[in-house]
Specification:
The complex is a heterodimer of chains A (386) and B (472).
Chain A lengths: L5 H10 L6 H7 L8 H6 L10 H6 L6 H13 L6 H4 L10 H5 L6 H11 L7 H13 L18 E4 L2 H6 L2 H12 L4 E2 L8 H5 L3 H17 L5 E3 L2 H13 L8 E3 H6 L10 E4 L3 H6 L5 H7 L5 E3 L18 H4 L1 H16 L4 E4 L2 H8 L4 E4 H8 L8
Parallel strand pairs in A: 1-2, 1-3, 3-4, 5-6, 5-7, 7-8
Chain B lengths: L15 H11 L3 E2 L2 H6 L6 H9 L8 E3 L4 H13 L4 E4 L16 E4 L6 E4 L4 E5 L4 H10 L2 E2 L12 H7 L6 H4 L2 H4 E7 L5 E4 L24 E8 L1 E2 L3 E9 L2 H13 L6 E5 L1 H7 L10 E9 L1 H14 L3 E2 L3 H9 L5 H5 L5 E10 H16 L4 E11 L3 E10 L5 H18 L15 H8 L1 H13 L13
Parallel strand pairs in B: 2-4, 3-4
Antiparallel strand pairs in B: 1-2, 5-6, 6-10, 7-11, 8-9, 8-10, 12-14, 12-15, 13-14, 13-17, 16-18, 17-18
Helix pairs in contact in B: 1-4, 9-11, 14-15, 16-17
The chains are: A alpha/beta (386), B alpha+beta (472).
The site of one iron/sulfur cluster has 16 residues of chain A, from α4, α7 and α8.
Chain lengths: 386, 472
């Protein structure tokens, strides 16, 4: 079979231009890597704009996917000064990776921007982020000093990693998860966990991310757990995808709670309708766009709906990536509203599998349940308020 | 160093009182921040992409506005009119001819915050604000069982307002038509800030069609704020067909015969030998020959009849569904400018239309003419849009000039436009005129250009709407 670039070699030969285009020949011969990825993205016509929640809802070129890459390029080139105003567009990103689903190069803009955030824009010192870094440094907890809480049993055969948002915003979910695990024959326990480090990573502070990762990995390791399940898909993404890249190992593999429940739940019965919201890190980051849907559709009598943008083509709740809700809460709210309205055209109750998504929808007046809560209800835990 | 790191200043200062009024009207949705000004100083015109690469821009806007409704657009335009400040409508910035570049400074009005959609299923009409993203609209319609049938390659990027303003057309145009066939009604803001609505009737006979003042107007007569668009039922059946022919001419002639009999496949694309090698290299039997991909779709009874007509009329070897599936999978893979511009390659596409009787000679002469420009690496084409009367050729060229890249680029454009006019073609089939083609519009329209200029002066008496665009 002819090769991908044979046509161009033929053309260069026929036009007698081969010697005039040495860079092209080296590039198509695989001997030149070509421009760096940030440059490629900056020169793209924005072929993922339609999928980017910020691009669509904010509607500005400056914060569109390629637009952010251009701003990053101008900052890197020194053509734009790293003022707060000029650097802000780099943080108008939810780290949802929706761009990577459509990108012909497979890029995630969040990844392309991170080095510029670290090197150039990091110096801007957004006060909104300083507090996060201080909290993480001091308490290993994104919200400051953790409230004293009933952290559940300290011994068992399944380590349940709750994550910062569940601990802070939905502490009752811990007990519900414990009962669901019990139903499946596991005795879950919790530890005095440290933040997985994702907020630091998202905000461009990779040295703090590494520090937290090492600390949390050590805590998980010393728990002796043989089965580990986490509530938050972003944490799981950190443990499974990012930690290895930074030389940190977590053993055994951490499962997201929806992955864990997927093949274990049997014989559940329910009624009414729900609509699925796929968290970005579960659907795109971990490549598991069907798990919530599979769990719910195994429930006899429950009608499960999917929104217009479903599967891997999900749409962020607006509160991912740590930066947007802090720097531009109004944009975060508008994205949550956009998604919430789209979802509730299908059914009143949104089922997701991420404490942050649940929080984003609930705080904007929508009824949202984590899949664990729904299972808990179906197991007779409490009445579903429909 | 200024904070934009260049010595360029916006071409037109907005008086302080006007700035205050605009800020009062729009708050956060009005900006003079450098990052915003740089972001709106280019579109997808290859010349302006080189500015991005270098980080240096000859033309900057003075401010950017993001209105959320027609009232706000009217107010912005009124303030601009009262203060003699130019205004540029901006959609997705995917225009490839510099049509949205703020050449004289002034206010860029980005319509993308105006994105409501309403569908009237009984009338089969979608009402969309100008900033609605193309994919967003199509996905919405699909979820209700409809399609617009307007699928340009820039679907993910471009906006409804941009489509109307450039008289865009999509990959499925042979069945569904160009945007001009879909626009039933329009709302626009005129250069002095008033609003006009051209109502969405099925047809009217009420004087000259005012919609056509805005369809293809590229922002020079006002700002389109809303469109009422015809929709179709989602196709019940989709039939994928492909052929390999020995020559470009054979394949074109086959398509002509199909259309003459009244069949309207949605997609028809005929690739010349070079482009067949480029896009279909994995189909060995086609390598160096001519591939045609065809999609017939719609009600299954009608589609079945159209399929039979294609099969009866097409003279070539059938290649089956795979090349069409390959085309469907790769048709939005836009990588070339990103990969090759930084390597010093000058690259662009030029689309022209021509009647059947002059089609092959125009194709051949244009290819020959571009090859004569020193530095050219290749020039190739496919026929991308078809009519019973003629065809659109979509040429691609690339070169590595020794001297000034812009000089080479303009030289290629110049020979291509000259050859098109001399061979009875139209200088643009769907990308429009913008700033790259403006010096050729007069050649094309002849006396019509003077008429167009008079219309411009009458509608935009101060010459503030996208000044310089289209040579107006
Ligand atoms: C990868 C790629 C593929 C493409 N494929 C196609 C294709 O298949 N078919 C096709 O026809 N074109 C294609 N184009 C060209 C381009 O996408 C179209 O011209 C498109 O219609 C431009 O829409 P936009 O919203 O991006 O407009 P912009 O680029 O923002 O603006 C284009 C022009 O219209 C004016 N304008 C924009 N919005 C308004 C408004 N609301 N009121 C008045 N004037 C306005 C601007 O001032 C400017 O002059 C392609 C471009 C790219 C980069
Ligand atoms: S990661 Fe998400 S928010 Fe950021 S650019 Fe990509 S799609 Fe947009
Ligand atoms: S992420 Fe990919 S598709 Fe999106 S703008 Fe960048 S290069 Fe284009």
């Amino acid at each position: 079979m002819p090769g991908k670039w044979d046509w161009l070699k033929d053309e260069l030969r026929a036009s007698g231009m081969a010697s005039a285009a040495p860079l092209v020949l080296r590039f198509i011969g695989g001997r030149l890597r070509g421009p760096d990825n940030l440059v490629k993205c900056a020169l793209c016509p924005n072929m993922c704009r339609h999928a980017c929640p910020v691009g669509i809802v904010d509607g500005r070129e400056t914060t569109s996917p390629a637009g952010k890459a251009r701003v990053a390029l101008f900052l890197r080139q020194g053509r734009l000064q790293a003022t707060r105003e000029n650097a802000s567009p780099l943080y108008a990103c939810l780290s949802c990776d929706a761009c990577s689903v459509w990108c012909p190069f497979g890029f995630s803009v969040a990844d392309l921007l991170r080095p510029v955030k670290e090197k150039t824009a990091g110096g801007v010192g957004f006060k909104e982020f300083r507090e996060v870094f201080e909290n993480l440094e001091k308490h290993g907890y994104v919200y400051g000093e953790p409230k004293p809480s009933d952290s559940g049993s300290r011994t068992g055969d399944l380590l349940y990693l709750r994550g910062c948002t569940l601990r802070e915003k939905h502490p009752d979910m811990s007990g519900k998860a414990e009962r669901v695990f019990q139903h499946l024959g596991y005795r879950s326990f919790t530890i005095d966990e440290t933040c997985c480090g994702m907020p630091a990573y998202n905000l461009g502070n990779t040295s703090l991310f590494r520090k937290l990762a090492r600390k949390q990995a050590e805590k998980i390791g010393s728990s002796g757990a043989r089965t580990i399940v986490a509530s938050c898909p972003s944490c799981v993404y950190a443990y499974r995808v990012l930690y290895p890249k930074y030389g940190v190992e977590v053993k055994p593999e951490v499962y997201h709670v929806a992955e864990f429940l997927e093949d274990r739940l049997k014989g559940l019965k329910g009624e009414g309708s729900v609509v699925v919201h796929n968290p970005c890190k579960l659907a795109v980051g971990l490549g598991k766009p069907q798990v919530i849907w599979k769990i719910l559709s195994s429930v006899e009598g429950l009608t499960v709906k999917e929104p217009r943008r479903s599967g891997r083509e999900t749409f962020c709740c607006g509160h991912g990536g740590s930066a947007v809700p802090r720097l531009n809460p109004e944009l975060a709210r508008r994205i949550a509203m956009e998604r919430g309205v789209e979802l509730t055209e299908e059914a009143e109750i949104i089922v997701t599998a991420c404490p942050t998504c649940k929080q984003a929808f609930q705080s904007n007046g929508f009824k949202a349940l984590d899949v664990v809560e729904l299972v808990h209800i179906l197991l007779g835990g409490e009445q579903c308020s429909r | 160093m200024t904070s934009r790191g260049a010595d360029v200043k916006p071409g037109c200062a907005i008086p302080p009182a006007a700035l205050e009024r605009l800020k009062g009207l729009l708050g956060e949705r009005f900006s003079t921040v450098d990052a915003d000004l740089l972001s709106y100083s280019h579109d997808y015109w290859p010349i302006s992409l080189r500015w991005v690469l270098k980080g240096s821009f000859p033309w900057l806007p003075s401010a950017v506005a993001w209105p959320e409704n027609s009232f706000e657009v009217q107010e912005i335009v009124k303030i601009a009119y009262g203060n003699n400040v130019p205004v540029y409508a901006f959609g997705g910035g995917s225009g490839v001819l510099g049509g949205a570049v703020p050449e004289k400074g002034g206010i860029v009005v980005d319509l993308k915050r105006m994105r409501s959609i309403r569908l009237n299923e009984e009338d089969m009409v979608a009402e969309a604000e100008a900033g609605v993203n193309g994919y967003y609209l199509e996905k919405y319609l699909n979820s209700k069982g409809y399609t617009l049938g307007h699928i340009p390659q820039s679907l993910y990027v471009s906006t409804v307002g941009g489509w109307v303003a450039t008289k865009a057309t999509g990959q499925f145009s042979t069945k569904y038509g160009g945007i001009e066939d879909m626009v039933l009604g329009l709302e626009a803001v005129l250069p002095w800030g008033s609003n006009v609505i051209m109502k969405p009737h099925p047809r009217t006979s009420t004087g000259p069609d005012l919609r056509s003042l805005f369809i293809g107007s590229e922002g020079v007569f006002g700002i389109v704020t809303r469109a009422w668009l015809k929709t179709c039922l989602l196709p019940e059946e989709r039939i994928l067909l492909s052929y390999v022919s020995e020559t470009f001419q054979d394949a074109l002639e086959s398509v002509r015969r199909v259309l003459r009999r009244g069949a309207r496949p949605a997609v028809v694309r005929v690739y010349d030998e070079t482009e067949t090698k480029r896009h279909f290299y994995m189909f060995e039997e086609a390598y160096g020959r001519v591939v045609t991909v065809i999609i017939v779709e719609g009600d299954s009874k009608i589609a079945g009849a159209e399929r039979r007509i294609v099969e009866e009329e097409f003279r070539g070897r059938m290649l089956g569904e795979e090349p069409v599936k390959h085309w469907l999978e790769t048709r939005f893979m836009v990588k070339e400018a990103s990969e090759f511009t930084p390597l010093g390659v000058v690259f662009d596409t030029i689309e022209v239309s021509v009647s059947w009787s002059r089609a092959t000679s125009l194709y051949r002469r244009l290819v020959e003419a571009v090859r004569t420009v020193k530095g050219t690496l290749f020039v190739s084409a496919h026929a991308s849009h078809f009519y019973p009367q003629g065809v659109c050729f979509y040429f691609t060229f690339a070169g590595v000039p020794k001297g000034d890249p812009e000089k080479y680029y303009n030289e290629v454009w110049s020979v291509a436009m000259k050859t098109t006019v001399e061979n009875g073609g139209s200088i643009s089939h769907h990308h429009g005129v913008g700033r790259q083609r403006r010096s050729w519009l007069k050649e094309e329209l002849e006396a019509g250009f003077e008429l167009l200029k008079k219309v411009k002066t009458a509608v935009d008496d101060k010459g503030l709407m996208n000044p310089g665009n289209m040579g107006l």
